[in-house]
Amino acid sequence: MIILGLILLLIGIFAKVSILTTIGIVLIVVGAVLFLLGATGRAIGGRKHWY
Known about the structure:
This is DUF6131 family protein. Pfam families: DUF6131 (PF19626). By secondary structure, the chain is mostly helical. The chain has helices spanning about 1-15, 20-40. The mean pLDDT is about 80.
């Protein structure tokens, strides 16, 4: 999710499309939160690991 967010962010910046930039930032933040929760050992959505 973080990688997809980075790709959309870069496309949005280079193509000057603000909606892609916004979606990219949101995906990066959500991916980082899920990564941090998964790294601490908390179960997310009934799973021990979030892939």
